């Protein structure tokens, strides 16, 4: 069992660029993180996941790496990293690094060599292909497949020098590594071992379900109105993925204790996730699935689909039931790629921001799985009031906007409406520490504007206020550490057809927990078959306990009976 320590753990994600700036250059850094470790220790989290801090031209804020075994100078040095690691361990926490090995930066020496000539020994470390038969390189439609890249434009870039194209599922500065080549895999495993030997406690694996591609690379389906084909069937959950993950496990994790591995897997299904997370198969401990964060997106990417609570509940229920016997869930509302949870799923108005942020935390943390908190979520940080496209910095927002507006003829306003609601920069505005200038994030000019609500929404204010989101999250984390039913209890969804209430039970032996969250601004009564009148109220997010399961707007409750 010790092996599965992460079942009772809570993970906190740091996006280093936006967390805390110690040297005044406007960009977060490792010394900034060191200075705030007590904030995390007080919150009570067990693990810190650090988004990439490796040397990088920062085309995709560090998800484009030029050296896997060093620290980006803007963030610090390896010595400062060791200090950070020691500081984390000294507080009884663990540190998990981001592993970005579906692609590297185009400035990585591996790719520089690979592109230098067709017969370079590293040529085959990346995906190179000639123009489509019958096409001149560089002419429209000459790309080896019709795939679009995630950040807009085609997934292939012509390299003039050798006249061939290279594949990049993300930006053209993020060429895909060729995992078919055993030398690539060995180089990655060596690098992982080097970090683990240095003392880190595991990895969050970026788009790890894209490393195996279907051969030969197939064209994707083109939908009306879009310029490119959807190549996902050619690279999501590819034919050798399980083999690669098992090999990685054998060469890196086998024999190491108390590690945590989580695979980020856009498009993963429940059935596949059972296989990935079955401990007997030695692949990964848990995966990030995307079903709930894709629930407000339809076939047309530039139309917002209103979120229905019944849909959200059906998704979570499917994952809870599916991974009940074998496997394990990771639980998250947001991260550095998603808008702020309270703005998306709650109500970020003055009246309900605090209540709804706490309600969302309650519902998420009481599911079966390992909860992930994204920096600032514990303060109830909100989306940024973006007005124009110039205010965005994210390569995804800018690239998708350019494709949609300049090439596909969408109206700027329709595209901006979606970016305001869903753009990744919502999550990337600086962490709000104090009511001082720039929210205490930096003494310089922040690389991305601070949310104007920082005088009210900040860590200092939250720590001083016993009724803050921060202290409520502290209690939720403590509950996971003290109540075994939160960790191991069976999950049963209640009221699946209710559009306002999210209700479920967790049962372990003779202990039963009832969790209800009101996802609305109305007062609503939960009509349950069961009588919970004698149960103990463990936690609620409002000053008053509900009577007869009648919940105030955005109220959440946890009852316990034995
Ligand atoms: O994200 C993977 C991913 O699927 C994203 O495209 C995400 O779904 C999308 O941006 C949501 O709008 C990972 C990282 O988390 C992300 O920050 C990187 O940009 C991406 O991989 C490439 O490394």
From TrEMBL:
<dbReference type="InterPro" id="IPR017853">
    <property type="entry name" value="GH"/>
</dbReference>
<feature type="domain" description="Glycosyl hydrolase family 13 catalytic">
    <location>
        <begin position="13"/>
        <end position="428"/>
    </location>
</feature>
<keyword id="KW-0378">Hydrolase</keyword>
<dbReference type="InterPro" id="IPR056300">
    <property type="entry name" value="SusG-like_C"/>
</dbReference>
<dbReference type="InterPro" id="IPR045857">
    <property type="entry name" value="O16G_dom_2"/>
</dbReference>
<keyword id="KW-0326">Glycosidase</keyword>
<dbReference type="Pfam" id="PF23915">
    <property type="entry name" value="SusG_C"/>
</dbReference>
<dbReference type="InterPro" id="IPR006047">
    <property type="entry name" value="GH13_cat_dom"/>
</dbReference>
<dbReference type="Pfam" id="PF00128">
    <property type="entry name" value="Alpha-amylase"/>
</dbReference>
<dbReference type="InterPro" id="IPR013780">
    <property type="entry name" value="Glyco_hydro_b"/>
</dbReference>
<comment type="similarity">
    <text>Belongs to the glycosyl hydrolase 13 family.</text>
</comment>
<dbReference type="GO" id="GO:0004556">
    <property type="term" value="F:alpha-amylase activity"/>
</dbReference>
<dbReference type="GO" id="GO:0009313">
    <property type="term" value="P:oligosaccharide catabolic process"/>
</dbReference>
<protein>
    <submittedName>
        <fullName>Oligo-1,6-glucosidase</fullName>
    </submittedName>
</protein>
